[in-house]
Amino acid sequence: MGSLYQRGKIWWIKYYHRGKPERESSKSESKMVADRLLKKREGEIVEGKIPSLVYERVKYKELRDLIITDYTINRKKSLDRVNVSLAHLDKQFTGWNVLEITSEEINQYKIKRLDEGAAPASINRELSCLKRMFSLAVAAGKAPAVPTIKQLQERNTRKGFFEHGQFLALRDALPYHLKGLVTFAYKTGWRREEILGLQWSQVDQDNWIVTLDPGSTKSDEGRSYPLDEELVEIFKKQWAMRKTTGRITPYVFPNKRYYRKNEPRKPIKKVDTGKMNNFNKAWKAACKEAGIDKLFHDLRRTAVRNMVRAGIPERVAMQISGHKTRSVFDRYDIVSDRDLKEASAKLEQHLSFQDRHNLGTIKSFNDKTLSEEGR
Questions:
Q1: Fold for domain 60-139?
Q2: pLDDT digit string (tens) for 134-186?
Q3: CA dist list (Å): 117 to 85, 158, 360
């Protein structure tokens, strides 16, 4: 099936795979080494395996292309998150071939990322991305197997939420175009992308009900929310702003550029709400002014907690916030120090009542006993 030949002093082998000739250097001046390599390749072919040389030619970039194509074709909403993970993986594995990315090398990658200060949760997303890349590569015949990739134990689950006073302080510190947005998030628990992408076509202005269509949410399930009085006023002001500025935008909460008075009053074809200019900068500045350290996602946790504390049935609360699984909902239903203090006070009150009741019972029993002894 194959043969040996020399190029200079180095021995090469030649064999056939699927009718095509393959040539490979033994990287040795020993004919015996080349012969062993040839027999190994012939054995792989006889067993129906793809020769290792084929995999050595597959570079990391091909794996990267596979996952981008997969997420694009299937319109997966987490493509942005994958791109963030790929940015870190690229720094480590660009130029490597498939066989070089071993479990040991992946463990070294974990250590490197931890040394850089990356959180275990972030590293785990990167590892999940890498594992998916290999799964697609195996299915495409570009990798022999998926290497063992163990996730890190996560201890950095965030438990942040807003007390009502903290929220009011933050809202007061935010610029005008973000006040209504954060109020809506504080009450509904909707994700930032869902709120930023909210359009007037999704708002029933007769009944003031906001609807997310199926397929537009992370869970792919649609949901609706009837606005309360405060939110109705906010939405009315947002709608009136279209006439005041003389600009037409499909978005309920457009970005800062929409409100600038010094720009020509003409319709803006597209207001980029998904990447609101300086959003993070404005958020951090407001948090600093309010004296708090919070994430926008903490509004989602807070909404869940407030709904449960208000006595809203959990099934209804999950429908409003868009939580599909109970486990995630429970994780967001956070117990605060105030909850613990209230629980402690209620327990003390209950035990005090029991003490008074039992004391009366004991006194009555003792009086009865003394009376009987007197007789």
A1: DNA polymerase; domain 1 (1.10.150)
A2: 999 988 888 888 999 999 887 655 567 888 899 999 999 998 888 999 999 99
A3: 15, 16, 62
Closest CA relative to residue 222, chosen from 73, 324, 315: 324
Specify whether the CB–CB gap between 22 and 16 falls below 8 A.
yes
Using the structure block, give the residue that is written with the tokens 């990356």: 118
Evaluate whether 254 touches 237 at the Cβ level (below 8 Å): no
For residue 95, give the 3-state DSSP assignment: coil
164-332: which CATH architecture? Orthogonal Bundle (1.10)
Given a cut of 90, is residue 64 above it in pLDDT? Answer: yes
- Joined tokens for residue 349: 């009150």
Question: What pairing do the DSSP bridges indicate for beta strands 20-25 and 203-204?
Answer: unpaired
What the block records as the tokens of 360 is: 């009366």
* pTM, to two decimals: 0.56
- With contact defined as beta carbons under 8 Å apart, do 48 and 35 qualify? no
Kindly list the domain boundaries of the chain, sorted by start residue: 3-55, 60-139, 164-332, 342-375
Burial code (b: 16+ CB inside 10 Å, e: under 16) for 52-80 equals bbbbeebbbebbbebbeebbeeeeeeeee
How many angstroms separate the CA atoms of 148 and 250, rounded?
Answer: 48
Look at the block and give the residue holding tokens 């965030």. 158
Displacement of CA 123 from its chain's centroid (Å): 12
Sequence-distant contacts of 133-139: CB under 8 A, at least 24 apart: 133/63, 133/64, 133/66, 133/67, 134/63, 134/101, 136/63, 136/66, 136/67, 136/70, 137/58, 137/62, 137/63, 137/66, 137/98
Strand partners, 14: 3, 23
Nearest Cα neighbor of 53 from 15, 81, 83 is 15
